[in-house]
């Protein structure tokens, strides 16, 4: 397996990984303007981009996912629930779906809470074994924090959903599974994000203060968030394929 974590604007983190043997790659959460960085990585690694995935419709930055997919001739993928919201064709992803990338297997986890369409990507490298190696958590789980639940204006409902997602989809995974989030410190997509760009589930269970709280404590705590992203409504409209 090859793996690249690519820092972008607004403290965002994008990913490029895959199987060199099968010459296939996956690009995740590409920021607009970074498309050529991914094309260059594909050329350097001698692979074809097989999937371009956004972990959700972003509200803090413009996505480069569709543009990269068009350049690379790859499907652009988001969660299937976006059929109701976006104005472009995409490859819908569903909870439990498995993407085959040679020796690399990517399991889709639907993880609503930050947004209704949020998903995480659980990645296994069969050359290492059949146990998951890492999970790309998007804006669901950060190092030291979790995603903000207020973007839809239904804070209590979404915070409760986020609590259930964390405790049923992510925290039951083996503690040694590494987590690679969609942002680090400096992002407005959560409160209290660490500047460290990766962690493990065991470390987060021990040190992330939100993960030890009861449901009610969690819901109250995650409603304390920074101001919403500047130009959020315009960014969402563009990322949904609507006019600015």
3D structure, described in words:
This protein has 244 residues and is of the alpha/beta class. The protein has six helices and 14 strands. It has a single domain, classed as 4-Layer Sandwich (Metallo-beta-lactamase, Chain A), CATH 3.60.15. The protein is 24% helix and 26% strand. A six-stranded mixed beta sheet has the order 1-2-3-4-5-6. It has a six-stranded mixed beta sheet with strand order 7-8-9-10-13-14. It has a two-stranded antiparallel sheet with strand order 11-12.
Task: Characterize this entry briefly.
The chain is an alpha/beta fold and 244 residues long. It contains 6 helices and 14 strands.
Strand arrangement in the largest pleated sheet: 1-2-3-4-5-6
| Low-confidence region ranges | none
CATH architecture group name: 4-Layer Sandwich
Mean pLDDT: 96
Q: End-to-end span in angstroms?
A: 39 Å
**Percent helix:** 10-25%
Number of domains: 1
Radius of gyration, rounded? Answer: 17 Å
Number of strands: 14
Number of helices: 6
Shape: globular
Structural class: alpha/beta
Q: What top-tier CATH class fits best?
A: Alpha Beta
Largest β sheet strand count, sense and barrel closure: 6 strands, mixed
Strand content: 25-35%
CATH superfamily: Ribonuclease Z/Hydroxyacylglutathione hydrolase-like
Helix and strand element order? EEEHEHEEEEEEEEHEEHHH
CATH topology: Metallo-beta-lactamase, Chain A
């Amino acid at each position: 397996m090859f793996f690249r974590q690519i820092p972008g604007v607004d403290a965002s983190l994008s990913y490029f990984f895959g199987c060199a043997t099968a010459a296939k790659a996956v690009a995740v959460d590409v920021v607009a303007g970074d498309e050529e960085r991914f094309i260059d990585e594909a050329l350097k690694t001698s692979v074809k981009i097989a999937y371009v995935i956004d972990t959700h419709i972003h509200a803090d930055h413009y996505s480069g996912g569709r543009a990269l997919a068009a350049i690379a001739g790859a499907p652009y993928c988001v969660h299937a629930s976006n059929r109701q919201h976006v104005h472009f064709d995409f490859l819908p992803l569903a909870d439990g779906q498995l993407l085959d990338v040679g020796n690399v297997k990517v399991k889709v986890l639907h993880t609503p809470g930050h947004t209704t369409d949020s998903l995480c990507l659980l990645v296994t490298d069969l050359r290492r074994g059949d146990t998951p190696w890492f999970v790309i958590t998007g804006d669901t789980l950060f190092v030291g924090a979790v995603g903000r639940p207020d973007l839809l204006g239904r804070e209590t409902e979404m915070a409760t959903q986020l609590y259930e997602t964390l405790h049923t989809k992510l925290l039951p995974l083996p503690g040694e599974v590494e987590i690679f989030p969609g942002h680090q410190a400096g992002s407005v997509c959560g409160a209290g994000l660490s500047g460290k760009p990766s962690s493990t589930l065991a470390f987060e269970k021990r040190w992330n203060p939100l993960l030890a709280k009861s449901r009610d404590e969690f819901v109250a705590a995650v409603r304390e968030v920074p101001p919403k992203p500047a130009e959020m409504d315009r960014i969402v409209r563009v990322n949904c394929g609507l006019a600015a």
